[in-house]
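Here is the promised in-class demo. Please do not try to memorize the tokens; focus on the logic of going from shape to residues.
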């Protein structure tokens, strides 16, 4: 994590265990949740319906990527969120284009 080369087996073991504990943990995810109302939900207002039905934007895509836990389990492409977050200037346009295309067509391209 700090750029040091590690050769001692005990320290390597500790590093590997800590890596996977963090990878599959909720330590960098907000656990603040609201309880569901006991009497049910109110009907959405017209403005809320309009907001829910608006198309996704590039800003929405970037916000979603940046809100993910950096070291969470990798996606189907094998990359963790940290890759996309740290290289957004390079990959952001392509990721956004692919994501927006999916939400428009329902087809996920490679």
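The designed amino acids, position by position:
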């Amino acid at each position: 994590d700090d750029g040091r080369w590690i050769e001692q087996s005990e320290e390597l073991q500790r590093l590997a265990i800590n890596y996977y504990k963090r990878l599959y943990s909720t330590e960098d995810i907000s656990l603040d949740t609201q309880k569901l109302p006991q009497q049910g939900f109110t009907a959405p207002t017209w403005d809320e319906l309009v907001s829910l039905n608006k198309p996704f934007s590039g800003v929405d895509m970037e916000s979603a990527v940046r809100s993910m836990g950096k070291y969470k389990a990798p996606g189907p492409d094998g990359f963790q969120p940290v890759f996309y977050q740290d290289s957004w200037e390079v990959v952001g346009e392509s990721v956004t284009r692919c994501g927006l295309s999916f939400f428009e067509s329902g087809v996920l391209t490679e």
